[in-house]
Amino acid sequence: MKPLDWVLVIAVIVLAVSVIAGLVLGARALRQMQTERHDAHERQELEVGEAQAKVADANAKAATVRAETAAAKAEAGAARAEARRVLEAAHSEADTILEHAHRQAESDAEQVRTAARRSGEREIALLNATAKEHAAEVERRAARIDERERLHAEELERLVERERRLGGVESELAKREAALGKREAEIAKVEETKRRELERIAALTADTARTELIESIEGQAKREAAILIRDIETEAKNTADTRARHIVVDAIQRIASEQTAESVVSVLHLPSDEMKGRIIGREGRNIRAFESTTGVNLIIDDTPEAVLLSCFDPVRREVGRLTLEKLVLDGRIHPHRIEEVFDSAKNEVEILCDRAAEEALVDVGITNIHPELVKLLGRLRYRTSYGQNVLKHLVETAHIAGIMAAELGLDVPTMKRSAFLHDIGKALTHEVEGSHALIGADLARKYGEHEDVVHAIEAHHNEVPPQTIEAVLTQAADACSGGRPGARRESLEAYVKRLERIEEIAGGKVGVEKVFAMQAGREIRVMVRPDDIDDIGAAVLARDVAKQIEEELTYPGQIRVTVVRESRVTELAR
Length: 574
What we know:
By secondary structure, the protein is mainly α. It has four domains: 124-202; 213-254; 266-489, Hypothetical protein af1432, CATH 1.10.3210; 494-564, Alpha-Beta Plaits. Helix content is 73%, strand content 6%. It is built from 14 helices and eight strands. Strand 7, helix 14 and strand 8 (560-565) form a beta-alpha-beta unit. The longest helix has 200 residues, at 3-202. It is flat, with a radius of gyration of 58 Å. InterPro entries: HD/PDEase_dom, HD_domain, HDIG_dom, KH_dom, KH_dom_type_1, KH_dom_type_1_sf, Ribonuclease_Y, RNase_Y_N. Its EC number is 3.1.-.-. This is Ribonuclease Y. Belongs to the RNase Y family. Pfam families: HD, KH_1, RNase_Y_N.
């Protein structure tokens, strides 16, 4: 076959295959259309059945509604009939009630008329009796007025007679006054002559004699005053010393507060000595960054597994300790991380300070205090005075003052508030000039504290003389808290210097033979020469020594000054 024939055959085959494929596809489409038409017809039949069922239900419901409507109409007719019956019964009952009310009203009106007639008769009788009484009272008043006029006339006659007699007495007194004036002039002349004669005899002028007399009386008065002071002090001690000692001892015994001496160095324990190298860092960059950021000196020595943090600011030292502790626990130590941890530790210490202040306020029982004062009180959590924690000292002082105030019958809340805030000035740094007592008073006055509280704060170290009982009790409570054995510490050098100065003050007085400082400087025994100082002089000497010690020295608690005067007489029996 030729190639053209092959092409025609292939074309016919392809055309036949295409026709067969079209027939197959057309048959499938026809069957699918028939299936869909059948399904649609079935769905339509179902919908028609459902519609017929719904129509049947609707017809049944309509029949039910018609039956209910008929029953409702029957009930409405019965209700209207019942209503007409009730209305007729109500009309008849209303007529009956109205008739009864008319009869009752007529009866009440008759009773009222009768009562009014009787009341009018009683009023008329009462008015007649009252008129008679008024007439009798007028007659009695007229009689009293006539009697009073008669008495006034008699009194006027007596006054005229008395005035006449007084005129005579005045003339007599004028004569006597003239005579007395003449006599006084004569007496003055005689006294002047007498004074000149006495000056001539005594060889002294009146001014000189007066001066000598005043000096003599002044010396005698001083001696009598010293005797009187000694007697008064003895009597006061017999009654008041026991009472005061009981109050102070009772207050101290009831306050059981623990005391911890703090220093300027904190110790932080490390998990191992390898951590020291990481704290120092390469070429010491970590330790330099730590000290510059926190302001705390870091001391790393041969102490195993421990480093020292040194700083005179306790709050800054605590922030540094907490920063280093967090860095050690975290393990990442580099300058940037040190700054991050330092900010976190600083915020944490501030929160701890606020919490400590709130706990102290709750412990003392003080409310309604300015928030700025609360922040300042929180700073005192890390401040010390001679090793005594200042915040604990304030709490203890407040309790002691409150107990004393209760014993003396004073205002306990005001007393506690004064004692609790007396060292608030210590919360500020050295940048604020002045004594902590005056600074604290200015702060309390600024934040609205009562003037009695302000005065107690500024007077607790005698920068201002105490004028109120609150100020005196604040001083006493402060001395009791700070003067307890072990509450505070001081350097040996300052202790020795204070003892030496006490002995110098007592030894420099006239008539003193020996001076002994006893009980760690809390008592002084002064031995005097009995020939130079008598008993009155010994009392004056004790007062002078105590006053000079108060003015020159600063010390916790109190110092007792005892002057001993001993007379010895020795005689030999042969």
